[in-house]
Every structure is written in structure tokens, then in C-alpha cells.
Specification:
About 0% of the residues lie in helices and about 45% in strands. With about 450 residues, the protein is mostly beta strands. The radius of gyration is 26 Å and the shape is elongated. It has one helix and 36 strands.
């Protein structure tokens, strides 16, 4: 009989569905993934430390930013549900099919010269031009003349109206799914399976194919964090930093993101340094750290589910504000629950190997847990089995731990593998789970 002691780390790499069941502890020593979780983030809600715990809560946004946004004609800009938008909110996502950085810049696509398609899929604003798309073709108005789509006029004028197509030589271009304007220096045009960038002026600048295989799923499935473009592709979530190669941030997507709808919205959150992902189509929202860790979220009250969002950067305020299903404006805050509703959180650690080899049996004797000061009670359920896959199933044995250090003795659970589920309905943060026990020479 050989004694063993295991310390189980929090899965700081987030939800991972693509790895093998034995891949909880990566061979390169990097942070583990979790096979299942909901309503947990990598940074805790007490001290904002990278140790894992329950996510922040959604609370009403009541900051008085003064007035509401209006279109140039003076009419109030409305959310899709009819509500007004407090002044000081800078758009970071699609709004009624128009991507807007400053709502005052928006002008309806109506051709006073030339012609444009009657229906456009994507719209953006770039270098004082209105840019729309239909099929595989994009159309850009003349500079400072948003109704001028006369592509044959003023050929020597670099600010003339211009149109273009995405696609490689000898191929019919795919339908454009996204047009993303970044800092008036780059215009990204994407299909489901391809990405191009136009640098500088559209008439004289350079067009570069970033990738003929990786595209963007929808008009709002991208965001800019000040340094890099992040976007959702059918292949995963990618980051594109100017001057660097396209890089996959996360390819271990949960099924909901792998089959995300064209209405998916990404929005960078400067306060929590991550990206909110909404309207995926599976009933969940997601939070992704810029490292690539993905954390799914659910809400006990249907009216709290975020449906659209804007980014506030005004009067020292830097946060994302959500319009929820009940039309309320809310934002995430560490110290609260979901507007009076408890947050039920859960995360699975493991599978963890207890024995040195599958032919050896193991029995646990002690379970030690350490949770942050002021944490709510956490239910720790340990499941053991003969294989990594089957230890994720079954009822297991549950223990309740409070804040601080605690140990449960004589916890005799038999199996070569185990998983540990942490669940709570309050605020909590993780520090450590430890297992002690013994292995036997042969499996019995």
C-alpha cells in the first residue's frame, strides 16, 4: 500500500470540450480545463485575483450620464425594444444592423447619386464613408457624401465612391457576413470562411487576404480591445493584432459557440478585461478572458438575460451596459447577486488520477478544502470510478465546506479516478482542494 496526496488546481483555462478525459492536467504544465461549469469566472469577486470562483452579479445601471443619444435629425436613438439610450454610451456592437462607434455618425443608406442594392447585410462607417454589403460585394459612398454612390464619377478623386469584391482569383466570392471598421485605419471584410483587410483609403490603399479559411460568423461577432481584433469564427475564437499573424485564442469551443447564430454579439469589457458573448442561440451567454478561457453563464430569471450591450466610457466610467430581456439596463458588479436573485454556480475539477496506473486501485481517506474569507458555503461532491470518463457520472458523496480551511476525515471513496464538483448559491472563491489516501498493488 502506498500513500498519496493530491492538490487539485482550479481549471483556469475555462470550459474545454475537445480534449480527452485524461487531459485535465496538460502535459506542458499549463492550467487545466473543466469538462463542465456554469456561472464561474477565473477571477474571483472578492479581490479580483486569478483563483476562480462565482461570477459577478447583474445589477441595475443607474449612473446619470445626462440626456439620451439622438440621430442627426434630433430623433432619439432607440434600442430594438423601443427604449432610449443614455447619453455617454459609446456603441460597441451591432444596433439595428448598423455598426456604430458614435451614434451621431450614423446616416441611413439612401443613394442620391448612383445606385446601391435595396437590401444590405452589413453596414459600417469608415473614413467618412458609409460602407454596405450585398452578396460578396461591398459598396462605399464618397467621402462626406453618404448618399453618393456614383462609382464612375471623379475617377482621379481618392475620395470618390467605390465598390469591391472579396474572394480569391478564379473563385466566386462568398457572401459577406461582417464589415468591421477599426480606428479609421483598417476596414476588415469577412465571409464565413475568409477574412480580408483594407489598409488606409479604399480607393488607393492595400487589400490583404488575412485568411482564405477563417472568417466571422456574423455582423456583430467581433470586438476591438484597443490592441487586437477578436472575432468568432466557425473554427473557434481568433485574435488579430496588426503586424502579427492571425492566432487562435480558443478552439475548444462549447457546442453553443461552435454552432453560434449570425446574431452573436461580442463586446470587450474594459472593467473586467474580457469579452462578453451574447445571442449565441443556446440560451446561454459567455464570458471569455483575453487568454481564451471561456465561462458559460445562465440566469435564474429569464428577464435578466442580456440581449444587447453598449460600452460606457464617460466621466471616468468604463464598463459594459446590457439591455436585458425585461428591457432593464444592467451591468456586472462583483459585490452583488443578479438583481436580487441568487447566482447558482457550479464547476467540475478533473478527472484526476488517484492511482499511479489503471491496474492499481485507490481509496481516499481525507479531503481538505480552502475557500476565500467570507465565502458562502460550497458543496463539494466527489465522484470516483475505474475510468476518467465514468468518474464524471453518478451521485458521488457530497460534503459541505465553509470559508477558510476545513478537513473531512474518513472519506473512504474507492476508484482509480475521481472528479470534484463545487457548487454554491452564494459568492465564493477557490484556494485549494486536497485529497489524501492510499493505492493498492493490484486492482480488486
Amino acid at each position: 500500500m502506498n500513500q498519496f496526496a493530491k492538490e487539485v488546481r482550479f481549471p483556469m483555462n475555462g470550459l474545454g470540450k475537445a480534449g480527452g478525459f485524461r487531459a485535465y492536467e496538460p502535459a506542458d504544465g499549463s492550467a487545466p480545463f473543466t469538462p463542465d461549469c456554469v456561472n464561474v469566472w477565473g477571477r474571483d469577486t472578492f479581490l479580483n485575483r486569478a483563483r476562480g470562483g462565482s461570477r459577478p452579479g447583474l445589477t441595475p445601471f443607474t449612473d446619470d450620464l445626462g440626456g439620451v443619444w439622438c440621430w442627426p435629425n434630433g430623433e432619439a436613438i432607440l434600442w430594438p425594444d423601443g427604449g432610449t439610450i443614455p447619453h455617454g454610451l459609446a456603441f460597441d456592437t451591432m444596433f439595428d444592423g448598423i455598426h456604430v462607434v458614435d451614434p451621431h455618425q450614423h446616416i441611413d443608406a439612401t443613394a442620391t447619386k448612383g445606385d446601391i442594392p435595396s437590401e444590405s447585410k452589413c453596414t459600417s462607417y469608415y473614413r467618412a464613408r458609409l460602407v454596405i454589403s450585398s452578396g460578396s460585394t461591398w459598396y462605399a459612398s464618397a467621402n462626406d457624401d453618404y448618399g453618393n454612390f456614383d462609382y464612375g464619377a471623379d475617377y482621379e478623386n481618392a475620395g470618390r465612391a467605390v465598390a469591391g469584391n472579396v474572394g480569391l482569383a478564379n473563385r466566386t466570392g462568398d457572401e459577406i457576413t461582417c464589415i468591421a471598421s477599426v480606428e479609421d485605419t483598417r476596414l476588415y471584410v469577412a465571409t464565413q470562411n475568409g477574412l480580408w483587410v483594407y489598409n488606409g483609403e479604399l480607393t488607393t490603399g492595400e487589400r490583404v487576404c488575412i485568411s482564405p479559411e477563417v472568417g466571422i460568423v456574423g455582423p456583430s461577432a467581433w470586438t476591438w480591445n484597443g490592441n487586437s481584433l477578436f472575432f468568432l469564427s466557425p473554427r473557434g475564437i481568433y485574435r488579430l493584432t496588426p503586424g502579427q499573424e492571425l492566432a487562435a485564442v480558443s478552439t475548444q469551443l462549447p457546442d453553443g459557440l461552435r454552432n453560434a447564430s449570425a446574431e452573436t454579439v461580442l463586446c470587450f469589457d474594459p472593467e473586467f478585461e474580457g469579452i462578453h458573448i451574447l445571442n449565441v442561440g443556446d440560451g446561454k451567454t459567455y464570458f471569455m478572458e483575453t487568454s481564451g478561457a471561456i465561462w458559460p453563464e445562465t440566469f435564474a430569471v429569464a428577464g435578466l438575460v442580456p440581449k444587447s450591450c453598449v460600452r460606457v466610457e464617460n466621466r471616468g466610467v468604463r464598463k459594459v451596459v446590457f439591455r436585458c430581456a425585461d428591457n432593464g439596463l444592467r451591468h456586472f458588479k462583483r459585490e452583488v447577486n443578479d438583481s436580487g436573485s441568487a447566482i447558482s454556480s457550479r464547476v467540475v475539477l478533473g478527472p484526476v488520477r488517484l492511482s499511479r496506473h489503471d491496474s492499481l486501485a485507490a481509496v481516499t481517506n481525507f479531503i481538505t478544502a480552502i475557500f476565500a474569507k467570507n465565502s458562502a458555503n460550497v458543496t463539494v461532491t466527489v465522484r470516483t470510478a475505474d475510468s476518467a470518463e465514468t468518474c464524471l457520472d453518478g451521485t458521488g458523496e457530497a460534503f459541505t465546506f465553509t470559508a477558510g480551511w476545513q478537513q473531512k476525515n474518513r472519506c473512504r471513496l474507492r476508484g482509480a479516478w475521481c472528479s470534484i464538483e463545487l457548487a454554491s448559491v452564494g459568492r465564493w472563491a477557490y484556494e485549494s482542494i486536497g485529497l489524501r489516501g492510499a493505492t493498492f498493488r493490484r486492482y480488486r
